[in-house]
């Protein structure tokens, strides 16, 4: 994949995605950017999607990689399946999809019981309906040898006061992903993975002056994702993996919280 001296201690040295096309939904975001960069290093052709053309244009210009393509895609578009089919027709077989999307909403940090019906509905649609619609459109579009990887946070497992609706959505989409994996297992479709993350070092956080060397580098998340898609990870047969502590690496079960 790259010079072994630059890899985390747990990583494989022979992850190769050369010639494979991977779709990264939300790949221009913080964690998504790290995933995109790692997939490009592994040799993949990467298609990054977002809803904003301006965001994609800035991202593409900044990354400047010949194997990177960008496309607008809205998971709430009534014609989502048609858009995915058109993308597949243009780019060929999709060997992998990464879903790295989350929306904190506009309601600010408040108790769950202080949410209005409108704020609750907004969170439900943006953080749960989007993932449901993504699986419905993408499972049939990904090669049987490929994988779909949903990126989630530890809020899926623990209380998250002040952002409870986000945590509820994370828990729901974790269950959704595992259920889809169970239902689709043995049907000849792609593998389904759920990756639950700790706190990540991302470019937007660093630009905002928020950083901690103890956090997980976003590109390390991408290395784990690349290994899952390439079937090089020891966890490639597991639906669920946790990447919470960079000193420990990806695990099939959550490590004890410090």
Automatic annotation (TrEMBL):
One Gene Ontology MF term: oxidoreductase activity
Keyword Oxidoreductase: yes
Keywords linked to the UniProt accession: Oxidoreductase
One Pfam family per UniProt: adh_short_C2
Keyword flag Oxidoreductase: yes
InterPro entries: NAD(P)-bd_dom_sf, SDR_fam
Family statement: Belongs to the short-chain dehydrogenases/reductases (SDR) family.
Protein's recorded name: Short-chain dehydrogenase
């Amino acid at each position: 994949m790259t010079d072994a001296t630059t890899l985390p201690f747990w990583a494989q040295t022979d992850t190769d995605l050369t010639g494979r096309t991977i779709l990264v939904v939300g790949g221009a975001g913080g964690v998504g950017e790290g995933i995109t960069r790692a997939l490009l290093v592994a040799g993949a052709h990467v298609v990054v999607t977002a809803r904003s053309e301006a965001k994609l244009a800035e991202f593409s210009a900044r990354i400047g990689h010949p194997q990177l393509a960008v496309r607008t895609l809205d998971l709430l578009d009534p014609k989502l399946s048609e858009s995915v089919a058109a993308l597949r027709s243009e780019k060929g077989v999709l060997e992998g999809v990464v879903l790295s999307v989350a929306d904190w909403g506009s309601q600010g940090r408040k108790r769950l019981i202080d949410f209005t019906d409108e704020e609750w509905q907004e969170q439900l649609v943006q953080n749960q309906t989007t993932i449901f619609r993504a699986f419905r459109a993408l499972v049939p579009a990904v090669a049987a040898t490929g994988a779909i990887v949903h990126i989630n946070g530890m809020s899926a497992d623990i209380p998250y006061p002040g952002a409870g609706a986000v945590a509820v959505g994370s828990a729901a989409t974790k269950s959704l992903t595992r259920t889809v994996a169970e239902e689709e297992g043995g049907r000849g479709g792609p593998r389904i993975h759920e990756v639950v993350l700790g706190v990540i070092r991302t470019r937007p956080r660093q630009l905002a002056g928020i950083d901690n060397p103890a956090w997980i580098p976003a590109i390390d998340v991408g290395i784990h994702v690349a290994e899952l898609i390439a079937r090089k990870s020891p966890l490639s047969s597991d639906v669920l993996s946790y990447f919470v502590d960079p000193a420990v690496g990806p695990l099939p079960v959550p490590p004890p919280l410090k």
